[in-house]
Write a structure and sequence with these properties.
The structure is a homodimer. Chain A is an all-alpha fold. Chain A has 9 helices and no strands. The first copy, chain A, has 2 domains: 62 residues, Homeodomain-like (Arc Repressor Mutant, subunit A), CATH 1.10.10; 137 residues, Tetracycline Repressor, domain 2, CATH 1.10.357. In chain A, α1 packs across α4. The radius of gyration of chain A is 19 Å and the shape is elongated. The interface between A and B is large, with 53 and 53 residues.
Chain lengths: 210, 210
């Protein structure tokens, strides 16, 4: 989302300082929702963590649903935006391996808590908030396209044959990442994430060497 | 869990009729938690759906946390128990394909809502209820072992070489299933689940034909 389109809860455009305060609130809410879940996070928790007043928080967000959607947009920008950068420069099996290693290392550092900042939000809102579910669905679709760009580059470089379905490969890669992150979160162990991402790399290797 | 070990919230063993009432409460709670999530489900919702009184529900469950753990045990028995049966008789690539097709068909029938009855519980409780998280982790480990049994049977029949790591294959299969179910739930579309499970089958085929 362009920062120019950001508004207060009564529809006014934000000043530069207003954007900073809003950003602090959203970052605090995102961290809390990753730590204790969407339902466990109250507006009061967010207010305290962001160090703002109640009137300030309601100046930017009319209710918690609006804040949840701002957190989804924030994770879309952060997580999917980062992957767009990464996969724009990824065009080899080695690059794919390094990406997998980086994800496993990052989860290990965080004690495997929280799961995927976007996927875990999706699981929590899917049956209770259709608008939030649709926003996560759009972010996942953007994520698929980002990953596909890396597979397309590999195909263009001749790593894969032209007949390889890079779109399906990208969807399966994202699914393997989501499932691996969920299992790592629940089992508090990077092993399932490692096995899941190794399967992605292994299949790419088998496709490349046929 | 053996039904003999079931108790009231004050520790008394259950009669046959008591076990039936308890089962009705747990089934109602499981359906509600799949429909509207763990946090959205109240003890009053469960009472009304099960058609029991408040004193009856608290006769079996001292609080919601205890009910959540009973639902996890119920899904463990239902979902993982079913998979133990299925994979005890699965020893071929055709069997693996049929299993995948069955899962996709089942999700299509349900409009892709709810996600995995066990994995979605895991995502919801992982950061808020350590005992519930550990119970889901144990169920996932049991599920891995069930799937592995099918891959072991394939290896024993010569579908795979002896060097194939069936344990990792099983973990990656479960992760692909979990990630595919989560994406299908969020995107309300079986396509990501299909792509994720096709990747599992495809990798098994590539391993088998090397």
């Amino acid at each position: 989302m362009s920062t120019d389109s950001l508004r207060t809860s009564t529809g006014r455009p934000l000043t530069s300082r207003g954007r900073q305060t809003r950003e602090r609130i959203v970052t605090a809410a995102a961290a809390l929702m990753l730590d204790i879940g969407v339902s466990g996070t109250t507006m009061e928790d967010v207010r305290d963590r962001a160090g703002v007043s109640s009137s300030q928080i309601y100046h930017y967000f009319s209710d918690k649903d609006e804040l949840v959607r701002a957190v989804i947009a924030h994770q879309d920008e952060t997580i999917v935006g980062t992957h767009e950068e990464v996969f724009a420069h990824l065009d080899s099996l080695d690059g794919l391996r390094r990406w997998c290693d980086g994800i496993v290392d990052y989860q290990r550092l965080g004690g495997c808590s929280g799961g995927c900042p976007l996927g875990s939000l999706g699981a929590q809102v899917a049956e209770t908030d259709p608008d939030a579910r649709a926003a996560v669905a759009r972010a996942l679709a953007r994520w698929e396209r980002a990953i596909r760009r890396g597979y397309d580059a590999m195909r263009d470089r001749g790593v894969f044959e032209d007949s390889v379905d890079t779109a399906s490969l990208a969807v399966a890669t994202l699914a393997a990442l989501q499932g691996g992150l969920l299992m790592a979160q629940v089992q508090r162990d990077t092993a399932p994430l490692r096995a899941s991402l190794d399967a992605v790399v292994h299949r790419a290797e088998l496709l490349a060497t046929r």
